[in-house]
Amino acid sequence: MPPLIVVEPSTDTPLVWFDVAIRGGASADPLGVEGLHRHAALLARRGAGTRDRAQLDETLDSLGAAIDIALSRDAVTLSGLALARHLDAVVELAADILAAPRFDDGEHARLLRETPQVLDEIRDDDSALATRWFDWLCCPGHAYGRTSLGTEASLARIERAQAIELWRREVVADNLVVGLAGDVDEAQAARLVDRLVERLPRGARVVPDTPVPAEPRPGRRAILVDKPDRTQAQLRIGHLSVRYGDPDTPALAIAEAIFGGMFSSRLMQEIRVKRGWSYGAGCALRRSRLPHWFEIWTAAGLDVAGPAVALTLELYADYAARGPTDDEVDFARSYLIGAMPFHVATARQRMQLAVRDAVFDLPAGYTARLPEALGQLAVGDVRAACARHLHPDRAVTVAVTTAAQAEGPLAGAGAGDLTIVDHDEY
Amino acid sequence: MALSPAASRWQLEAEAAAGRGVLARRYRLDNGLGLIAAIDRRAPIVSLQTWFRVGSRNERPGATGMAHLFEHLMFGQTESLPPGELDRLVERTGGETNAATWVDWTYYKMSLPARDLELGVRLEAERMQHLVLEPAPVEAERDVVTNERRERVEDDVDGWLDEQLMAHAFTEHPYRWPTIGWMEDIRALALPDIRAFYRTWYAPNNATIVCVGDFDDAQLRELIARHYGHIAPAQLPEVPRVVEPEQTRERVVRAPKPIATHRLLVGYKAPGQDDPDWAPLEIVSTLLAGCPSARLYRRLVIEKEAASSVDAQLTPFRDPSLLRLAVTAVRGFDADAILALLDAELAALVEQPPGAAEVDKAKALVETDFWSALVDVDGKAEALGHYETALGDFRRLGVIAERLTRVTADDVARAVRGYLIAARRTIVIAEPEPDQGGDDE
Fold it and tell me: DSSP assignment, residue B33?
């Protein structure tokens, strides 16, 4: 079976984008070998066909082009950008990366030395650090909680042979979703996709064994990630929710917008506008193939970190219990339906949404057709979805801040038992 | 179609391409208001941006952060809109609002469904004239801004490096203070001064409306004339031209931070964006760290494994600014070791200037960047607004792109010799605090 192909022609600019999504992603990393998908994909990009890393970089740069690796929980994506006049040459290089990566031994060892440096950079970035800890602790046992980067310990277990085997197993035509957008027509695109996949081995689509705990742990928990000299607390609050594409997705999109998806949302109004406690506050249902987090975020000054957590949990509990008002649902529905043209305005946006829908095993056009579903929802549908999927009683709170100042206020914020960890433990 | 009376109040001043199949026209209303209109009907949306020729350069010491504070206040109450109403009206359409402030400009952005363009014009005209600046909302936004500063500077080592670089690289020019303002200044900005700043700078003859998207040109001009035509121009103050004294010796700043590894930010004095030397230096910037095969990246990250990231940026400011090189070291390499490697590579660049092939590589990358910035209506509007406001003419977008295509290897060699001079650089170093590990591998 050929890869699923999405083509969005447009002559707005002389540029072409292409995405090759390889189903699998970080959630399919073996337990204890977290970081393997990222490692394999980056290694493949560091030399392929007749070119070593330096030659591949030099050739791409000389064409004004780029081929980058993006990693999500559900897929590894090879993303290309090329001037249309060089598209054939750039696609040939991408085909080499897919079909004939060198997996150079020296680059393998170098990448294993480099990745811990990325961990250091995350530890220096409070927002990224809060997200890393929240992902890990939100729902223990869930495959989406596995770090896509890995840890110092898991990186030490990665072997070159594992990367080669992963690539051989997952980079097969049936496991790919390919999209092209920009200054390319459909016939040219079809020819280029053939070039991308013609040298790939046969193989079955990968269906990762991705554990999702059936019943999240009850009760609230709080983790203070202790880092010196902070003036704020970077906060993440949330729990396991549903997959993107669940029948309640349209209703939850409205619920999300009302609580934290707009400037007019409850969180932004209560935390930023009324109290000035933070530059921003919001929430999102993480879009993924399997059930993922409902996550609230904000960053509050140290002096108000405790009250900010307490207020957020109070607002969330009230929202989950009562649901939105009729006016709020009307407003959010109008916002979301009106906003869709901005999400599909460019050929690249349309292609990327279509590729994502395919990776999530959703019907073609699922996201683009969401406004139709939104238009048919009653207020009761949204309230029922809130009751089913918002669980303030299970909320996990992660705060990256300085324990000496924040421990007392956070312990008294009603977020559950507080555990303190050092910021560079993970 | 019959012309409305409003049409006679507009003067067409200039036109030029703003991407494939998109023509941008600049009109001037008789009260001085500028309009750049560029029709792009590929999606039923518009980007409506209002650019003001006021940025942090127009502030004074002790009152820094004023221009940026307005980026917040302008979303507040007006004489006809209660607090929060502006955002609610725009969000109900599916649109979004935002704003940005930098050294040379401030702009307000509305992304709107095409059918709601009139709403956007009405709201922008309202807040240009009738913003209500009362103590309570000003204090609330002051708190938000102090939290924004904590997040972006106090608790962010890269934000701190940026701020320190400008503060030490410039001794006289207003580029020396941060756009968000010093914390003590943000806390001290007085309401009478805030009101005076609004009356001084928020006027039609200090603004350019940029509209890109799906609209009718004549109807847009009629709409804008109707909502803005009655606003009187302001007496804009003379802005003294500050010339930064020539830097004659290297400046170095160091401070401990709770970070894992050393970070450096190096700023070499560079020309303003409209200077003919800016294009060859942009090529130098790309060749140093703008791509995976760039010289500094290869040397520091790949060959020496001394750094985890290297970045170069030539800041697009009106007045002379900086070519900035940012390096994050890895454990085992301190800032001095990185600096030695950096100096060796820059010396090699002087001794062995790039040949034609290397320069062509950078030009290809810059061409891709140029088109990438013009992919959507917001990007086109931002490019037009920046060149119009920072450099005085949106057509500089095309002029500078053309200059970049004509850069030669000789130009690059001359730029390297002329600007990458140690005595004219400032270095800011963040070092791990003693208990943060650092070089303990």
Answer: -
pLDDT of B7 strictly over 80 = no
Q: Which of B177, B193, B228 is the last residue before a domain boundary?
A: B228
The two three-digit tokens of residue A64, written as one number: 């004004």
Q: What is the CATH number for B216? A: 3.30.830.10
Q: In terms of domains, do B209 and B287 share one?
A: no
What pLDDT is stored for residue B290 in this prediction? Answer: 95
| Domain carrying residue B322 | 251-436
Residue B329: strand, helix, or coil:
strand
Strand A66-71 relative to strand A75-83, pairing: antiparallel
What CATH architecture does domain A221-422 belong to?
A: 2-Layer Sandwich (3.30)
What is the pLDDT averaged over residues B233-238? 95
Residues B196 and B307 in one domain: no
- Interface check A32 vs B, CB under 8 A: no
Helix axes A36-45, A160-170, angle to 10 degrees: 80
B375 closest CB neighbour out of A12, A60, A117: A12
Closest Cα in chain A, distance from residue B155 (Å)? 6
Q: How many domains does chain B have?
A: 2
**Which ranges of A66-142 does DSSP label H, i.e. alpha helix?**
87-99, 105-123, 126-137
Q: Which of B42, B258, B305 sits opposite A228 (nearest CB)?
A: B258
Q: Which helix (H) or strand (E) is A299 found in, with range?
A: strand A293-301
What would the pLDDT profile of A30-67 be if each residue is shown by its tens digit? 999 999 999 999 999 999 999 999 999 999 999 999 99
CB A328 within 8 A of CB A261: no
Is residue B269 located within the same domain as residue B216?
no
Q: What is the pLDDT of residues B357-368, one digit of tens each?
A: 999 999 999 999
Inside any domain, residue B241: no
Option in A54, A62, A232 nearest B364 (CB): A62
% of chain A beyond a pLDDT of 70: 99
Which CATH fold would you assign to the domain A4-197?
Cytochrome Bc1 Complex; Chain A, domain 1 (3.30.830)
The answer to whether residues B268 and B410 belong to one domain is: yes
Q: Are the beta carbons of B260 and A120 separated by less than 8 Å?
A: yes
Specify the pTM: 0.95
Q: Are residues B40 and B136 in the same domain?
A: yes
- Among the partner-chain residues A58, A124, A273, the one whose CB lies closest to the CB of B259 is A124
Instruction: Reply yes or no on whether the pLDDT at A208 is more than 90.
Output: no
Beta strand B45-52 pairing with B207-213: antiparallel
DSSP H helices in B150-300:
157-169, 183-188, 191-201, 217-228, 278-289, 295-296
> In terms of domains, do B30 and B117 share one?
yes
Same domain, B18 and B138: yes
The answer to whether residue B237 sits within a structural domain is: no
Q: Does A55 touch chain B (CB under 8 A)?
A: no
Both B11 and B104 in a single domain? yes
Residue B344: predicted pLDDT: 96
User: pLDDT tens-digit profile of A57-89?
Assistant: 999 999 999 999 999 999 999 999 999 999 999
A-chain residues near B360 (CB < 8 A): 62
Q: What is the pLDDT of residue B6?
A: 64
> What angle do the packed helices B135-149 and B66-73 form, to 10 degrees?
120
pLDDT in tens, A368-416: 999 999 999 999 999 999 999 999 999 999 999 999 999 999 999 999 9
Cβ of B147 and A263 within 8 Å? no
Contact residues on chain A for B432, CB-CB shorter than 8 A = none
Q: Chain A contact for B64, CB < 8 A?
A: no
C-beta atoms of A299 and B147 within 8 A = yes
Chain B residues within 8 A of A337 when measuring between CB atoms: 94
Helix (H) or strand (E) holding B414: helix B409-419
Residues 354-413 of A with CB under 8 A from B: none
In the numeric block, the tokens 């080669």 are attached to A164
What's the distance, Cα to Cα, between the start and end of chain B in Å? 76
Q: Where are the domains of chain A?
A: 4-197, 221-422
Per-residue pLDDT tens for B300-344? 999 999 999 999 999 999 999 999 999 999 999 999 999 999 999
